[in-house]
Amino acid sequence: MNISNWISLRLKLGGGGSRSASAGVVIAVAGVALALMIMEFTVCIVLGFKHQIRDKISGFESEISIGPRYTDSSGATAATIQLTPQLSRAINEAAPRATASVVLRQPVMLKTADDFCALILTARDDNHGFAFERSMIIDGVWPDYTQDSCANHIVISAATAKQLQIQTGEKIEATFFIDDNIKSRRYTVAGIYRSDISDYDGTVAFAGIKGLRRVAGIDPISGTGIDISGLPVDSVPAVSERLYDILLDDYYNGRSEYIYPVDTVLHKGSMYFNWLSLLDTNVVVIFALMLCVAGFTLVSSLFLIVLERVSTIGILRTLGASRRLIRGIFRRMAMRMALRGMLVGNIFGLGLMWLQQHFGLLQLDPQMYYLRRVPVEFDFTAILLINIGVAAAAWLVLTIPAIAASRVDPAQSVRYE
User: Fold this and answer.
1) CA nearest 236: which of 9, 83, 375, 64?
2) For residue range 364-395, what is the model confidence (pLDDT) as tens digits?
3) Helix (H, G, I), strand (E, B) or coil at 349
4) How many CB atoms lie within 10 A of CB 195?
5) Contacting residues for 28 by C-beta, under 8 A, at least 6 apart
6) How far apart are the C-alpha atoms of 53 and 231, rounded to whole Å?
7) Is the dihedral of CA 292, 298, 304, 309 positive or negative?
8) Please, are residues 134 and 175 in contact by the beta-carbon 8 Å criterion?
9) CA separation for the pair 104, 44 (Å, rounded)
């Protein structure tokens, strides 16, 4: 065993019973534990925020969308789009694992005897999985739109239901303005959803695509857009650029007569994604502050230990101990404090996050944060890197007090009280 390790393990951190040194050790352990806990909280909560908000925005908008074609020469834009073999080939080439579905969005005015509201009815074909929509249902059911009996069933948000004072199972009048004509339909509210994102809750309702196509007067395979989903958000810019290049190449090489616009969730939900990007800056600031807290408490406590061990240092120096040996002894003593703090921080930090993840102890205001409770997502790679970083930072900052310990004069230290 290394002699500096052997000596450091036999020296008490508390300075031989001194109250000040013992208090310093407790403060150092608590400081490191608190700093590590806050850093782990920050990473896991920010990851939870990002993923849950991203999933909600992507559920409403889809990661990538293709709009109706337009002609370059005339600038005319079509009203509808079909998932043609040419488009399917381009999508499969750009994003082989993605799912493409036809979407139809139609403005509508829902009216009761006492109130009305304007919404966008959204309907997708059977290629869409509807897992996101089902996960938001808080009352009623998600209709089986493959059945003709559900053609006149809709799903509205809790905000819309509250405004119109309507419940599941009740009938509601819907008015459409299509090609300068007014069309009316009577829908049954089959379900009520809640996403806690007011911009969507206040404007989006869901319907079956077969019935909505009949109302809009379009053919059974067309829609107002093609949604491409199932992509990681981080890959969206590269995939969308690749898709647009393929579609543009098809146009210029005569394989297609039209140009198709490509849009992404990052553009349509830019307000939310810009807000999420600010969280990264907050993480850096919090990490810097917590490292300062941990470093300050460790350095202060080690100085207290050095003061309590001046006589011991003098004896060791008299017996021939080198300054390097003294530095190693006190640095290792301080690392024992740091490791204790890291152990305590991991136990309480991971434990509290587990409780939050499963029981939602900390609640949020959904109008401000778009979520009803503090989200937690464990990333054990990030947690491991945080622990390694804290240990490395502690080892570095402890150099200063360890050097101070090694420079104690043996002749004066034996008379120190």
Assistant:
1) 64
2) 998 888 899 999 999 999 999 999 988 888 88
3) helix
4) 23
5) 297, 298, 300, 301, 302, 334, 337, 338, 341
6) 15
7) negative
8) no
9) 37
What pLDDT score does 305 carry?
Answer: 66
How high is the mean pLDDT of the chain? Answer: 85
d(CA 270, CA 277): 10
Beta carbons within 8 Å of 389's beta carbon, 6+ residues apart: none
DSSP state of 151: T
d(CA 53, CA 373): 13
For residue 87, what pLDDT is reported? 93
Q: Is the four-CA dihedral 336, 352, 293, 51 of positive or negative sign?
A: positive
Q: Which burial class, exposed, middle or buried, applies to 283 when counting CB atoms under 10 A from its CB (0-12, 13-18, 19+)?
A: middle
Cβ atoms of 59 and 129 within 8 Å: the answer is: no
Question: Per the structure block, which two tokens stand in for 91?
Answer: 């999508």
Query: Averaged over 296-321, what is the pLDDT?
Result: 65
What is the C-alpha to C-alpha distance for residues 375 and 388, in angstroms, rounded to an integer? Answer: 25
Q: What percentage of the chain exceeds 90 in pLDDT?
A: 53
Render 303-332 in DSSP notation, one character per residue.
HHHHHHTHHHHHHHHHTT--HHHHHHHHHH
User: From CA 40, how far away is CA 112, in angstroms rounded?
Assistant: 50
Q: Interior CA angle at 360 toward 357 and 364, to 5°?
A: 120
| Tens digits of residue pLDDT in 73-119 | 666 788 899 999 999 999 999 999 899 999 999 999 999 888 899 99
Distance CA 84, CA 331 (A): 69
Q: What are 10's two structure tokens? A: 């036999």
**CA–CA gap between residue 157 and residue 137 (Å, rounded):** 9
Please state at what angle helix 380-397 crosses helix 270-308, rounded to 10 degrees: 40
* Distance (Å) of CA 345 to CA 1, 29, 342: 29, 9, 5
pLDDT of residue 416: 47
Two structure tokens written together for 336? 């024992």
Q: The tokens of 391 are what?
A: 């240990």
* Joined tokens for residue 22: 């013992």
Short-list 367, 77, 372, CA closest to 225: 77
Query: Do residues 325 and 408 make contact, with C-beta atoms less than 8 angstroms apart?
Result: no
**75 conformational bin, left if phi > 0, alpha if psi -120 to 50, beta if neither:** left
